[in-house]
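Request from the bench team (R.T.):
"We need a structural guess for the complex before ordering more pyridoxal-5'-phosphate. Sequence and SMILES attached. Just send the tokens back."

Command: build protein-pyridoxal-5'-phosphate structure.
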Amino acid sequence: MPTPSRRFESVPPYLFAEVARAKREAIARGVDVIDLGIGDPDIPTPKPVIEALCAAAHNPRTHRYDESANGWPAFLNAAKEWYAKTFGVPSADQGELCQVIGSKEGLAHLAWAFIDHGDVAIVPNPGYPVYKVNTLMAGGEVFEVPLREENAFLPRLVDIPTEAARRAKLFYVCYPNNPTAAVATSEFYADAIRFCRDHDILLVNDMAYATVTYDGLLHPTALQAPGSVEHVIEFHSLSKMFNMTGWRLGFAIGNPGAIQALQAMKSNIDSKQFGAIAEAGAVALSGVDNRETMALYAKRRDYLCDGLAALGWEVPKPKATLFVWARVPRDDMSSAEFCAALIEKAGIVAVPGNGAGSEGEGFVRMSLTLPGDVGGERYAEAVRRIGESGLVPSRAGV
Ligand SMILES: Cc1ncc(COP(=O)(O)O)c(C=O)c1O
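Reply to R.T.: structure attached below.
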């Protein structure tokens, strides 16, 4: 067999191998493992969405190629209305939209649509690896901006060197943020848009967790700022908002030229999502209230964060996302060592922070989507086991 493309050499090694091995061993020993690893909604997709899929699958119109320009019209119309209703941005100010096969696909192909050899994308560290990996595979370079606790996990724009900004074409940001669970403000978006305007950069705003928020938070968007459509493309996903990770559906919205470039790239690679899925996605966007699911995540969050605080491990309560981002509560262990010990001594899987970038070292990520948890009881059990493990020194972080 010929060797695969050298492009793959730019894909970083899998950092969770040690944790995955320890998890397999614990399961083999018969341990009842509590897996707080991946953030994948454990509640089924809402019934009206499933019913809409079934009905649409019977319609022969969905059995053929979707020959629309940017995506299934009913889906894009629902997305426009949802965006206007949720964030108060009228369709006249939204730019254009295109459907994506999950936001991962769109975020990845945007790099391929814009990055040539020698071009730069500014990416967050820690961050969702897709931005960096696809920039590198497309032959570009990344400038990594650190997301640090002292800056509320927002990138400090003044620290980005002029040379990097001059060569950059894309600036990926993600709020509500994976992995840090940080949220952004309208002021941050205004500053980022000004920065992008000054350096002719496209701001790529990944909002995969747009309405996965708690305590009544309505997260701002970049397109709310007047005139921002000149400099912004934003990605939204049905995956986390409506428990639809497996369905592979989302949309990009914003600068018409950027949408056209993305759509041009996509039209050479995919032939759009199954129309029945898009039809069901329209039902999710126009008629599903996800507040009950969010209330369950918030309950789990409270069990976990309050319980850990009672052990002496103070972890911030996230206002959004499916994650708790916590400092490793002891000085003598790296993130990976602490996660390995958590499996070993407590049967709990957490993700080492450095898996999302070097700046994540010293942190662990725990998800709020544990299958089988009905009302927080498995999170209470996780806290009990962490307490018994002795891994949290008393009064850590207090
Ligand atoms: C920050 C972030 N962006 C994008 C995605 C991709 O989601 P999807 O492709 O399911 O829309 C994820 C998934 O975990 C994510 O965490």
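Two things stood out. DSSP finds 13 helices and twelve strands in the chain. The chain has two domains: 6-44+290-389, 47-287.
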